[in-house]
Amino acid sequence: MPVKVTLDAVLGARGITGKELARRIGVSETQLSLFRSGKVRGVRFSTLARMCAALDCAPGELLDYLYDASDLEAPDEAEEA
Q1: pLDDT digits (tens, 9 = 90+) for 27-51
Q2: CA atoms lying within 13 Å on the CB side of residue 70
Q3: SS3 of residue 5 by DSSP
Q4: Cβ(59)–Cβ(50) under 8 Å?
Q5: What is the spatial distance between Cα 32 and Cα 25, in angstroms, rounded to a whole number?
Q6: What is the residue-wise DSSP string for 25-56?
Q7: pLDDT value at position 65?
Q8: For residue 3, what are the β-bridge partners?
Q9: Are residues 33 and 11 in contact, defined by beta-carbon separation less than 8 angstroms?
Q10: Long-range contacts of range 32-37, CB-CB < 8 Å, 24 or more positions apart?
């Protein structure tokens, strides 16, 4: 998947643990761990906003994108490939 979660780098730069961030934003450590590992299919904007507020960052600091030409294909084209 070309979308990469970079939350760990932000946590390290801020000196905050995942456990502390989970407590601050009101999610379980398990939920945060799944996000950190990229194993979630989506994230609510409200959760992303709470993360950004707690970490004093922008959403682009928590996510990165690596170009993949297949991302431009229509969903049915990608399934046929």
Answers
A1: 999 999 999 998 998 999 999 999 9
A2: 10
A3: strand
A4: no
A5: 10
A6: HT--HHHHHHHHHT--S---HHHHHHHHHHHT
A7: 94
A8: 65
A9: no
A10: 35/5, 35/7, 36/5, 36/7, 36/8, 37/5
User: Which residues neighbour 1 within 8 Å (Cβ) at sequence distance 6 or greater?
Assistant: 38
What's the pLDDT score for residue 78? Answer: 53
DSSP character at residue 73: S
User: What's the CA gap between 47 and 32, in Å, rounded?
Assistant: 10
Encoding tokens for residue 57? 């960052």
**Angstrom distance (rounded) from CA 21 to CA 76:** 38
Cα separation, 43 vs 69, in Å, equals: 23
C-alpha–C-alpha distance, residues 32 and 46, integer Å: 14
The predicted pLDDT at position 81 comes to 52
Which structure tokens are listed for 10? 């932000």
User: 16-28 pLDDT, tens per residue?
Assistant: 999 999 999 999 9
